[in-house]
Specification:
Blueprint (H helix, E strand, L loop, with lengths): L1 E4 L4 H14 L5 E5 L6 H5 L3 E4 L5 H8 L4 E4 L6 H18 L3 E7 L9 H16 L2 E7 L1 E2 L3 H4 L3 H4 L1 E4 L8 E2 L1 H13 L7 E3 L8 H12 L4 E4 L2 H10 L4 H15 L9 H6 L6 H9 L3
Parallel strand pairs: 1-2, 1-4, 2-3, 4-5, 5-6, 6-10, 7-9, 8-11
């Protein structure tokens, strides 16, 4: 039995779809969700839907019973909350007898990173290592899916601003990441405990702007700003303080070079490389 947490979320649902496609059916696939009422479509397809609330460890223990492989999709929220939630899931998995955990981690887990996300995933990977359960950390880069939101201001002003400096990063869509995560979970054996699912190449945001401009036919310009200014801008648009600060600090980590690396791990798992930036730009901005 393979169970996916957060299965009604953007990444979790796609992982479910990939598991079903690769297995040729829904047998042996389960989903853990905070609100089963929102998972009716999954249940109708034959997915075993279970109630699992990361803030209620007893529900996780019940949800994880009989599960051999657990795909632990990282949660959302303030850093200290996420670390506690992930620990709850790991403890419940151990108590339920789960044999292997596949954790959706982050490319940047460096101890000297300015990013709050790095601290969250570093702590959670350490908890997995201490658990005694076999685990695989699937470190995700920046979601390409976020680029339209990131660049939204450019459609009215011609300019978008980030505290990423001249830093470089790779981009992969959630759809592609779900392929790699499902492939890892279904593999009969894996050679390593850490896979870094980077794109084919890294790009700075000037290059991103150029790729999007080529697709849309509109001149788009990137401008760097301070972390504080970016966080304050997000807050002024209604973002919670914790979320605004976490995102701003992630871009500071991009500026510090924490995302500037490329690995072949995606292709090792899936059998082909991820799509290049030009293809992602066409998919995301082709109708803009």
């Amino acid at each position: 039995m393979i169970l996916v947490t957060g299965a009604t979320g953007q990444l979790g649902r796609r992982i479910i779809d990939q598991l079903v496609a690769r297995r040729g059916g829904t047998a042996g696939i389960a989903a853990s969700v905070r609100d089963p009422a929102r998972a009716g479509e999954l249940a109708e397809r034959g997915i075993d839907v279970r109630h699992g609330n990361f803030d209620q460890p007893d529900t996780l223990l019940t949800a994880f019973r009989g599960v051999d492989k657990l795909i632990l999709v990282s949660t959302a929220g303030p850093g200290v909350v996420r670390i506690a939630q992930h620990q709850n899931a790991i403890d419940a998995a151990r108590a339920a007898g789960v044999k292997h955990i596949f954790y959706t981690s982050f490319i940047d887990v460096a101890a000297d990173s300015p990013a709050e996300y790095a601290a969250v995933h570093r702590a959670s990977e350490a908890a997995l290592a201490a658990s005694g359960i076999a685990f695989t950390a699937l470190r995700n880069p920046l979601y390409a899916d976020f680029l339209p939101m990131t660049m939204a201001a450019a459609w009215s002003t011609g300019t978008f601003q980030l505290p990423a400096g001249g830093g470089r990063a790779s981009f992969i869509s959630r759809a592609e990441l779900s392929e790699a995560i499902a492939a890892a979970a279904l593999a009969p054996a894996l050679a390593r405990t850490v896979y870094e699912l980077t794109g084919q190449a890294t790009h700075d945001y000037q290059e991103v702007a150029a790729a999007v401009g080529k697709v849309t036919g509109r001149r788009v310009r990137y401008q760097t700003i301070s972390e504080d200014a970016y966080a304050q801008s997000l807050e002024s648009h209604g973002w919670p303080t914790w979320s605004a600060r976490a995102l701003a600090s992630m871009y500071s980590a991009v500026a510090a070079g924490k995302f500037d690396r490329v690995r072949n791990d995606f292709a090792l798992l899936v059998g082909h490389p991820p799509r290049p930036l030009a293809c992602l730009a066409q998919e995301l901005f082709g109708k803009h």
